[in-house]
Amino acid sequence: MLSSENNHKKSIAELVSENYILAEVLHYFGISFFRHEKYSLEEVCQQHKVNLNQVITELEQWANRIEPTKEELYLHPIEVMVSYLKKKHRYFVRQALPFLSSMVEGIELGAAYKGLMTDLRLMFPLFVDDFIHHIHEEENTLFNRVSMLQDFDRGVLPLFESIKVFSLPPVSKMAEEHEAHDDEMEGIRKLTNDYQIPKDAPVSMKILFHELQQLERELILHAKIENDLLFPKALELEKEVKRKILLQIKNN
């Protein structure tokens, strides 16, 4: 356990090699692990005026985080699913992407990896910009559409407002466009040769490649939740809303 006195004296390089999560936790506290690899955790915390016990507590909490399964999410109402996806968007934008950006920009791996890092420093910011644009677009279109459909379904809006749903692009069209964005990290994956790490690679490179691969795994799962769960629920909601509106028009 990191809380043991012996671990406080280990170098940052040793500790992050044993537990990659520590690298992201240190970033959360404003500490770039790759700038302090030779120092102990105790020394780094003192230098940055960070409480060592807080770092340990945060690390334990992060290590124990459990994400809901697709099956669990499926059982919840659509608004719970949207809330979960929004929370993941905030995590990507506020934590995961800044952490990776700091590594891509700050890690120095020497002449052997200069070409790779130069290409990554060109490619990764473009990926980040594109991904953040995708997030905003998704929240402004799909998530807002779900909210609008719920208002229609609950009878919150008057009939003349509800009829507008027939003039909007269908959810099925939004689903088709969404699937075109599913492989956002293809370029980075090819550049890193599917995140293959040389045996003699520095610790900072191992963590960088691990975190890039971890982000891709999370994005794949995120997209599957949207494609396999959210869109089908949104389609059913849209179908039910249109049925109710047509019935209301007929009765009027």
Molecular structure report:
- The protein is mostly helical and 252 residues long.
- The protein is built from 12 helices and no strands.
- The longest helix has 49 residues, at 203-251.
- The protein is elongated.
- It starts with a helix and ends with a helix.
- The model has no long low-confidence stretch (mean pLDDT 89).
Notable features of this structure?
single chain; 252 residues; mainly alpha; 12 helices; 72% helix
Question: What Rg, in angstroms, do the CA atoms define?
Answer: 23 Å
Distance between the termini: 69 Å
Number of DSSP strand runs: 0
Spatial shape: elongated
Average pLDDT rating: 89
Please outline the major beta sheet: none
- Strand/helix succession: HHHHHHHHHHHH
User: pLDDT under 50 segments (min length 5)?
Assistant: none
Secondary structure class reads mainly alpha
Number of helices: 12
Helix content: over 70%
Note the beta-strand portion. Answer: under 5%
Topology:
Layout (H helix, E strand, L loop, with lengths): L4 H5 L2 H7 L2 H8 L12 H7 L4 H12 L6 H5 L3 H29 L7 H40 L5 H4 L8 H9 L6 H6 L11 H49 L1
Helix pairs in contact: 3-5, 7-8, 7-12, 8-12, 10-12
